[in-house]
Protein: CCHC-type domain-containing protein
Amino acid sequence: MLFYLTTLNLSKFLKEDAPASGSTVEAVAAADAWNHSDFLCKNYILNGLDNTLYNVYSPMKTAKALWESLDKKYKTEDAGKKKYIIGRFLDYKMVDSKTVLSQAEEFQLILHEMHAEGMNMAETLQVGCMIEKLPPSWKDFKNYLKHKRKEMDLEALIVRLRVEENNRTADKKNGINSMAAKAHVVEDAPRNNKRKYSGEGKEQGNSKKHRDFKGKCFSCNKPGHRASECQQQ
Structure:
């Protein structure tokens, strides 16, 4: 409406009061011209209102009084809207059940609404808030971003989140395939039912063979052991 009134060269009547009355011809002509323009400005505004609001605001005497009344009403509503957006900003928290990128876009929309309402925020603060709102499973990556000395803008952070999420998705798929392959190998592995003998049993078996040897040693010519086991060599 303000833009429309500006194109009609009537926006100045939203701030100007009626000129002082006078008896001269020039004063009377100026007052008549002002009243005519103010009447047009006021009725252009009333024509833009909803029908239910027309009777509420039509008793206003001048365009300035009408504009101030509307401005007061909608500024109060804007203040309530700002508090609502601030509440959404403070309460927003990312969860593990949704993708981080989609939640980052939702958070960017809240930041955009805050900017549109005149609540500007430094980009460094925006980056820090988004890092803090990452889901619990991203705790290690959150700490990694916090310890980075080089500052990054919001766009660079989104790129890092996209790369990290793609890597996590790929690792998750590879992990599932690896576990399935291991399970397949275990199921298909042939069973070995052969009995394994310990070293002690093997030594006992060799000792029994030694005790059963009836020949003589070629080195000392004594019975009961072989030349390779002779202690006199």
